[in-house]
Amino acid sequence: MTEEQKSGVSFNIREPVYIQVVRHFKEQIATGQIGAGDQIPSRRELASIMKINANTAQKAYKEMEEQRLIVTEGNSPSRITQDQQILSSIRAELIESAVDIFIGSIRNIQIPVEELVDIIKTKYTSERSPEGGDTR
């Protein structure tokens, strides 16, 4: 994990920090910044890097182990799972979560779906244009 990857988290107050740490790792996996079998920092290192409580880091790792996102064997460093089924489901999970949040916030406006899709297409493609600096 590079310094940029390590420091790329700003926490919000709406949800528990450990959940945000888990999401951070999922985003890193979904974007290919960390991959199957990659070693991740120790719990103490992560706490120091992200400036969070060591118990919060421990809780995030426990959650990632329960979701089978990471594997920790004995005293060996934790690693991202190599289970391709789990890894391939991460991107879909993140997209679905973002869409659910978006729909929940926009639904009360009662905009026709076709108009909403047109707005999304326009915004999404303009954000990704070379002028915007993001050419993904």
Gross morphology: elongated
Helix content bin: 55-70%
In percent, how much strand structure appears in the residues?
A: under 5%
**What is the oligomeric state here?**
single chain
Q: What is the residue-averaged pLDDT? A: 88
**Distance between the amino and carboxyl termini:** 21 Å
- Write down the secondary-structure element order: HHHHEEHH
What structural class do the secondary elements suggest?
mainly alpha
Largest sheet: 2 strands, antiparallel
The radius of gyration over CA amounts to 18 Å
Q: State the helix count.
A: 6
- Using DSSP, what is the number of strands? 2
Poorly predicted runs of 5 or more residues: 1-6, 132-136
Task: Trace the largest sheet across and list its strands.
Answer: 1-2
Verbal overview:
By secondary structure, the chain is mainly α. The protein is 57% helix and 3% strand. The protein has six helices and two strands, in the order ααααββαα. The protein has helices spanning 3-7, 17-30, 43-50, 54-66, 84-106, 113-127, and strands at residues 70-71, 79-80. A two-stranded antiparallel ribbon has the order 1-2. A hairpin with a 7-residue loop joins strand 1 and strand 2 (79-80). Helix 2 (17-30) packs across helix 4, helix 2 (17-30) packs across helix 5 (84-106) and helix 3 (43-50) packs across helix 4 (54-66). The longest helix is centred in the last third of the chain and has 23 residues, at 84-106.
